[in-house]
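re: ur question from yesterday

yeah so i grabbed the chain u mentioned. its 452 aa long if i counted rite. heres the sequnce exactly as i have it in my notes:
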Amino acid sequence: MHATRTPATRTRVVGNAAAGPVLARRSLLGLLGLAALSACGADEGSGGGGKTVTLDFLSYNHGTPDLGGQGTQKLIDAFHAANPDIRIRPQGVAVKDVLTKLRTDTAAGNPPDVAQIGWSKMAEAYANLPLVPIQDIPSPADWQAHVAGMSQGVLAAVRHDGKVRAMPYTMSVPVLFYNADLFRKAGLDPDRAPRTVAEIKDAALAVTRTGAQGVYFAVADAGKSDYLTQSVIASNGGTLLRPDGSPALADPAAVGALTVLRDLTVSGAAPAVSANDAVATFAAGKLAMIVLSTAALTNFEKAADGKFDLRTAGFPRFTDAPARPTYSGAGLAVLTKDKARQRAAWRFVSFLTGAQGFTVITRDMGYLPLRPALVTDPAHLAGYFARNKRLLPALDHLDSVTPYTFFPGRNANQAVLALQDEAVEPIVLRRADPAKTLAETAAKIRSLAARS
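ran it thru and got these structure tokens back, copy pasting raw so excuse formatting
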């Protein structure tokens, strides 16, 4: 992660006079009406009369040396080419610092116009930040036109209080990545990927007998996200919260799910290492399987190229019922209170989540195309998927993806940190007692909710 960059003094609108642009735009709106402006493609504060608006965009991908950073810059460059009247000024910030940065900037009266916020941190953002529901910015007709081609399962899953408040953006679901060469070496059929956790354990133990490492569920990741924890618990028939909003961590389904993962470590099927170490070991061809977000795909492909046979399969079942993974990644939130800037922000957000945007997001960054038609569209991703079918198992989960569960109150992010640091990691990596540890963590989360 790189250090947070402090933005320069913000330039709201670049024009020929200090106060003239606002008065001129109001007069123009009065004369022509909003509908006429929309029809002509001129938006208040977004380039009418030769003026340019500059939007601040906080992004935890921007500026990083990896494919996420490169892809984000490619998206911004493409937007600039198509929208010369709007300039994007990106601010890079480490994912763990997003909420702190947003709270600080908001308190100073200087929040970014658009922010990329991870779903694990969205509940606290809803509670503490002045987010403008993205669905309320365009007209109802424009909103419906934009989301018509998007995954309706994802849109339904991210609704909060009946509205899409943050636009689904860089999103993924966890899948099973596996090294087919290590399967062959262990006498396993690489064309028959494990479909259940029990099958994964058997395969992992077979691999360990060859000297390689078996499997790793990346539930204790460095980003402190609980998407994979939720996926595991939901697939075992559980949930983080009961219908009354109280923590369900000590319930049998949650305890059972993490007990299964603990058993992988105790049995030797899984190494007791950090998620970053496991990712590096898999990329080096020394770990047979890893359950992780599809966001890792592009980097794994680069590592595997010419070295080992990389394959994917769907998220594994924990019971006889279908797996129920949830999503990870981020949504795009708008924070500016200025109506003209909100409309400029909508143009940016709708570009990033349009056909051209999701083509880059999938092809260059490894996230899922949330517009299913792009997969078979020759102008967009048909060629990519003809050559590369590794994202297809994840696409099968999109229509039935499990909604992300938010802990209640203003301390929701602290509750996630408690879950990950004080329950998941000790249980899975350090062999802590699942029932006792989850009960203690549930009590702490109840206390955090009561203080919010």
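noticed a couple things. Residues 262 and 428 are 4 Å apart (CA to CA). also The beta strands are 13-14, 52-59, 86-92, 114-118, 167-172, 174-179, 213-217, 287-293, 310-313, 328-334.
anyway ttyl
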